[in-house]
Amino acid sequence: MSSPKCRNGNAISQEKRHRAIGLRLFAVTAIVGLSSIAILPQHSASAQEKTSRSGNARTFDIPAQPLSSALNAFGRQSGQQVTLAAATSRGMRSSAVSGLLDPNQALAQLLSGTGISYQISGGTAVIGSTTPTGDSGAVSVAGATALDPISVFGSGKLGAGEIQISSEELAQKNPANIADVFAGEPGISVGSSLPMSQKVYVHGIEETSLAVTIDGSRQNNKVFHHSGTNMIDPALLKAVGVDAGIAPADAGPGALAGAIAYETKDARDLLDGDGVGGLVTASYNFNSDTVTTGLTAYGMKEGLEFLGYFNFANGNNFTAGNGNIVEGTSSDFLSGMGKVAYEFESGDRIQISHDRLRDDAPRPYRANAGFVDSGRPWEPRVRDYTLDRQNTVFTFTDSIPEGWWDPKFVLAYSRTELEVPVYSPPRLAIPPYPATGTTDSLNGKFENKFSFDIGNIVAGVDFYNDQAELEDLFEPGTEKARNIGLYAQVRLEPGERTRLSFGARGDNQKFTGTTGQEWTNSGLSGNISGEYDLIEDFLTAKVGYSHVWGGIPLAENFIFNPNWNYGDGPKPVTADNYNLGLEATYGDFTIEGSVFQTDLADARAPRYQILRGIEAHDVRSTGFDIGGGYNWGDGYFKVKYANIDVEIDGKPADSDIGSYLAAPAGQTITLQAVHTFTDWGVTLGADAEITLDYDDVAVGSKPYEGYQVFNAFIEYQPPSRPNLTFRADLKNIFDETYADRATYGQEFPNVTPLYESGRAFILTAKATF
User: Fold this and answer.
1) Residue 146: CB partners within 8 Å, gap ≥ 6?
2) What are all long-range contacts of 1-7, with beta carbons under 8 Å and residues at least 24 apart?
């Protein structure tokens, strides 16, 4: 812990210089040390080749069925786009595919015995015509003809409102925080430049109105409206899935405006067979003199798997584009994860994981704002925040499902704790004291997938027991919510050109207020979505609708009032979501667009005052997005545009009333380009975010100014030493002074927003053993 003097941003300059020099020396030593690994024997490179191959492995479960349906299932499960002529699959049946395989192996098994050739190139699996097996000189695997694979980018077709961020995309982004994870998605914004106060907004709706899970564990992290809700170390992530607006019934309870599912890495993602391995990363950010170091060890042996991960970051405040140091933005971050799994010969697999992170650094007094002139001069501009989040998950699955038995059981516990000092007016003569807000969730589910020729049904039961507690010297408080739900989701492919998904769930919730009063409510939710190929292999229409009953959400801890007057009780929140879209694919070109709307009714957003404990609002988000891209095998280019309007009670949203509800959005354009020079081991990339001026604001508020941010990177993986990777990122190339559109308080005259970092040069080195 730093001294109080340091925490108020007044550390002496000599001490800062010594610290900066020490950090630079540490970073240089780490990078040079990793570079020296290049002289290791060649078997290290071989180990990396093994690891790289396994990074494309996925779990497949495709029963034997009509070939066209099987190939659609392969596209979803592999992330590939599948192209074939209808005549090729007519009258053909696939072989069953199950287990952890890379896409080539899975497709070879699926086509086994059909004599149909295929090629995977640029994220697309091209299925050829029926030919005698062995007719060509290509590699033959289990009766199918496979051509040599090329670098894979992109993903297969997605349903209405679906967004998938794969492990390959995460590796290209090299994210330092959650905002980096969602870069390139203009419909998703992340407020704040500090990881501990970042909030994710999907179509302008805050993530607390979405079902958010980490490895299937429900996250109930609503603590303080000036801090974040789901702080995650992006280095842990294997993939991220977003259902924007319409979520299936098996996404979990509370999916009012959709769902976000974070999935962390397993040992089998890093190894393709028995063995052990390790990964070391080190990076240095020259803007803030921040050093980040990560260590990972993993192994597999006769069904037993383990993974251990440790990451820490330490550094100074960063400098914004205007040249000013932004107080309260230093790094003091610690993250770790452990996973152990065992898979029996029967295919039964059990896994337990625990991840935890801690952010312990001085932050702005309101951690998502640079400065708020609150008229309370006794409050310091910077104060101590300690945020601690942890997540424990036990999972049982069957990796070799038989017939209609394909179960999944999850039992999880998540917890977030935030401790901050409270400063009282001097006239009260009360010294500063700590207040602690804690939210937790004991949750789980048991479900089974029933597969048949044209699709599957997932049916199950889930529960949660959530609690939010404030430990305060004068006004402690607690709210609780318990819920049990029954659900079923049907996913069908009734024809070669049609995909359907529909489901329903029923929930029963018991809510307990700070006064100990209890209310029990029940409700039903339903969803339906579908895709139809208007022109086969070219134009697809997508449509979806959902009605969601979300129960009564807990209030945030730091506004609890033990004397709230709940009256007849808070009303359960409900939502209606609509989405309509088109996607066109021609060769390596893709164009897509959609219109959407989300309506939240009786969305609870209480305030401290006694009569405002059941305060609720109606929220509407409407808009459209369009995008296009070109994929040339070793790279791609994408451009996307989103135009989103958000209203609260029929008026333009503002970030204060919108706490735990929504934030202003407007128009955003994103561009991305990546190319790999395979023979040289060099990858170049660049991206841009252009956010336009926005004047649809509440009466008396300032319009939002637009901003333009450009980034670039170069990555080098020596062909002779593929176990090494070196990368240089240049963030905010033109030193733009800006705050993300979703960042709190920009429209208020008494708020200095929390600016994003100015130009930053980041060096990263990685070595795999």
Assistant:
1) 104, 107, 108, 117, 118, 119, 138, 139, 140
2) 1/360, 1/384, 2/332, 2/361, 2/362, 6/362, 7/362, 7/382, 7/383, 7/384
pLDDT on residue 146: 35
| CA–CA dist 708, 689 (Å, integer) | 6
Q: Please give the single-letter amino acid code of residue 753.
A: P
pLDDT at 60: 83
Q: Which of 561, 751, 571 has its CA nearest to residue 655?
A: 751
Instruction: Give the single-character DSSP code of 751.
Output: E
Q: Which fold has domain 260-768?
A: Maltoporin; Chain A (2.40.170)
Sequence-ordered alpha helix ranges (H) in 607-668: none
* Nearest CA-CA partner of 244 in 252, 233, 256, 253: 256
Kindly report, residue by residue over 408-427, the tens digit of the pLDDT.
Answer: 999 999 999 999 999 999 99
**17 contact partners, CB below 8 Å, separation of at least 6:** none
Asked if residue 236 lies in contact with residue 214, where contact means CB atoms within 8 angstroms, the answer is no
- Give the residue ranges of the chain where pLDDT is below 70: 1-57, 68-69, 76, 79, 81, 83-91, 121-124, 128-157
Give the amino acid at 242: V
CB 709 within 8 A of CB 689: yes
Report the alpha-carbon distance of residue 315 to residue 329 in Å, rounded. 9
| CB contact at 8 A, 176 and 287 | no
- DSSP state for residue 20 in the 8-state scheme: H
Q: CB 726: neighbour CB atoms within 10 A?
A: 18
- The gap between the terminal CA atoms of the chain, to the nearest Å, is 34
DSSP E strands, 365-399: 369-372, 382-398
Give the residue among 630, 626, 625 at the shortest CA–CA distance from 590. Answer: 630
52-146 CATH fold: Phage tail protein beta-alpha-beta fold (3.55.50)
Provide the pairing of β-strand 81-83 with 124-130. Answer: parallel
Q: Is 187 helix (H, G, I), strand (E, B) or coil?
A: coil
Place of tokens 């299937």: 216
**Domain spanning 163-259 has what CATH number?**
2.170.130.10
Question: Residue 56: its pLDDT value, please?
Answer: 61
Distances in whole angstroms, Cα of residue 314 to Cα of each of 63, 94, 420: 49, 53, 20
Query: In a 10 Å sphere around its CB, with 0-12 CB exposed, 13-18 middle and 19+ buried, how is residue 666 labelled?
Result: buried
Q: Is residue 232 within 8 Å of residue 238, measured between CB atoms?
A: no
Please provide residue 720's backbone torsions phi and psi, each rounded to the nearest 5 degrees: -85, -15
Q: How many residues does the chain have?
A: 769
Residue ranges per structural domain of the chain? 52-146, 163-259, 260-768
Taking Cα atoms as reference points, which of 353, 351, 360, 352 lies closest to residue 331? Answer: 360
Query: Of 575, 582, 507, 505, which is closest to residue 546 (Cα–Cα)?
Result: 575
Q: Which DSSP string do the residues of 679-736 spell out, in sequence order?
A: TTTEEEEEEEEEE--B----TTPPPBPPEEEEEEEEEE--TT-TTEEEEEEEESTT--
Indicate the residue type of 549: W
Beta strands (DSSP E) in 431-564 are 433-452, 455-471, 477-495, 498-512, 518-535, 539-549
Whole-number Å distance between alpha carbons of 139 and 120: 13
Give pTM, 2 decimals: 0.83
Rounded to 5 degrees, φ, ψ at 119 are -145, 130
